[in-house]
Design a protein that fits this description.
Structural class: alpha+beta
Number of helices: 17
Radius of gyration: 34 Å
Largest sheet: 9 strands, antiparallel
Distance between the termini: 41 Å
Strand content: 15-25%
Length: about 525
């Protein structure tokens, strides 16, 4: 896997994930009263998916975002913009320092950074440092959670029993949940639930009996909402995007919204008197001195401002508007799909396997029509051109062009018609296949990047070696393409050099069709 594949994922996730976090922070302040805390909490899933999934959907607008002087076709437009702008910024800063100070180590370092980034070497070092830091964050989280679980096990003093246990089972029936073990833990600061496959609820040993029911209700709502999975998702986001402060901020607000979502779920199962008791339980909760953001456990505590806000929400008679909630859900789905639309609609073609060529053009003098037709058949049947000539009828005519004798050969059957011309020594001058127009006759003209992908460059170089004697490819660039429903026709300008002469390289035009397979369907020597 190339490092650019990972950078595509990280940079797109960082840019678009940060935008979604900012929108979510704004939405939770503006729309909570209309859609409720549960919708707000669920909307954080969009942020998590955008941060974690390496998915890219085609988007025609991204074709315009690719930088005009892109040199790495593996980089998608968002990552490529960042890459190109970083290179430009480094070189511009180096040039400014040379003007102001006459050079020095800083300008040389910036020049070197821009050059190494241009050639794709800087990314490997960045990737190594990124991976080491992500591993350190993951190990820190694992150690913290392991220590907490061992502390819980060591300080566990008793299970729920008696009337309290019966009350707990009645709550489980009300919420349609399978009962999870409940333990009293010495020196525990706040009630918590932890675990996904084998969840448990832990309570401080000094929990008053009159507050036990609302506390258990809240922790059961955490289990019903799957907050153990949410905690894992938050931690995965923090490991992958450890360098982004917005992700850490968003994880903190997501944890708070999880508490308010559970309050809202619990509130929906209570009458007025039970709500008051629930609010009293929140008021008596110990203020948590530390956030424990990466702990895979929920707690009902928070600072005084957060607890006051939660109490107000529990006691208020807020009515969620169904239309607003449905509209919010539809909008969230649209935003989620749109956030992944980061790929070009017509991505640069990638050729994974080059044709295996048995015949190669060479020096052979073509004296008559039969030899010219046989030579044309061999050219058309080679895998780079891939034309079935079995049922074709050929006609060859010798003509003089620019002082040289050349053969004009035409082939035709019920499905295809081709024409080509070549000199008496076999040097190809032109080739036209019917697929140039028929396969994409309803296409749309595109403006691809001017740099050939490596795989296309290798394909064209292989064609030149096989079919153009004494020539080698100097450079090539896309000048346009036509895209149909299931095919693309690329027009490529290729600069060729005669290896036997020191003359000026000649310019030729190639048409390459990508349709089920990749093949050359047109060639014309321009000069």
């Amino acid at each position: 896997m190339r490092s650019m594949t990972i950078f595509n994922y990280l940079l797109e996730g960082t840019v678009l994930g940060s935008v979604l976090i900012l929108l979510q922070l704004l939405s939770r302040r503006l729309f909570r009263k209309k859609v409720g805390s549960r919708i707000i909490y669920a909307a954080w899933l969009i942020v998590a998916l955008r941060l974690l999934l390496p998915l890219s959907l085609p988007n025609p607008l991204m074709n315009e975002l690719r930088p005009g002087f892109s040199t790495d076709m593996e980089a998608r437009p968002v990552a490529n913009q960042i890459r190109v702008r970083s290179i430009d910024a480094a070189w511009d800063a180096a040039a400014a320092l040379r003007v102001l100070t006459g050079g020095g180590s800083v300008s040389e370092a910036l020049d070197q950074f821009g050059s190494q980034t241009y050639h794709g070497k800087t990314g490997k070092w960045f990737l190594l440092g990124y991976g080491a830091a992500a591993l350190a964050v993951a190990c820190g989280m694992w150690l913290q959670n392991r220590r907490f679980r061992r502390w819980i096990k060591r300080n566990r003093v008793a299970e729920l029993e008696g009337e309290a246990l019966l009350q707990y089972h009645r709550l489980c029936v009300r919420l349609m949940l399978r009962p999870a073990p409940v333990y009293y833990v010495d020196k525990l600061e706040a009630p918590s639930s932890l675990g996904v496959l084998r969840p448990m609820i832990v309570l401080p040993t000094d929990t008053p009996d009159n507050q036990l029911k609302p506390i258990l209700m809240h922790q059961l709502c955490h289990l019903k909402s799957g907050d153990g999975v949410w905690a894992w998702l938050r931690n995965c986001c923090l490991v992958v995007h450890w360098f982004n402060p917005l992700v850490w901020i968003g994880a903190g607000f997501c944890r708070r919204d999880g508490e308010m979502s559970c309050d809202e779920l619990a509130k929906s199962k209570m009458n007025a008197g039970e709500r008051i008791a629930y609010a009293d339980g929140l008021a008596a909760t110990v203020v948590h001195p530390h956030g424990w953001l990466t702990l895979l456990a929920t707690d009902g505590a928070g600072d005084e401002k957060e607890l006051r806000h939660r109490m107000t929400a529990v006691l208020s008679n807020m009515h969620i508007k169904t239309v607003a909630a449905v509209a919010a859900g539809v909008l969230c789905c649209c935003v989620l799909v749109g956030s992944f639309a980061t790929g070009e609609k017509y991505a640069p073609v990638r050729i994974t396997v080059l044709p295996n060529v048995l015949w190669r053009a060479g020096d052979e003098f073509l004296e008559d029509e039969l030899e010219a037709v046989a030579y044309a058949r061999r050219f058309l049947e080679n895998p780079y051109v891939d034309v079935d000539t079995q049922h074709m009828k050929f006609n060859a005519v010798q003509e003089r062009e620019e002082g040289s004798l050349c053969w004009e050969v035409e082939g035709k059957d019920d499905l295809e018609e081709v024409s080509l011309s070549f000199l008496e020594d076999g040097t190809l001058l032109t080739y036209e296949g019917e697929a140039q127009t028929d396969a994409v006759n309803h296409g749309v003209i595109q403006n691809p990047a001017p740099i050939l992908p490596d795989s296309m460059r290798r394909f064209i170089s292989g064609f030149v070696q096989a079919c153009l004697p004494h020539m080698e490819m100097v450079s090539g660039e896309f000048i346009g393409d036509v895209a149909g429903d299931d095919a693309q026709l690329f027009t490529v300008n290729v600069l060729l050099k005669d290896v036997k002469q020191e003359s000026t390289p000649s310019l030729s035009e190639l048409n390459v069709l990508v349709h089920q397979s990749v093949r050359v369907v047109g060639y014309h020597r321009l000069r």
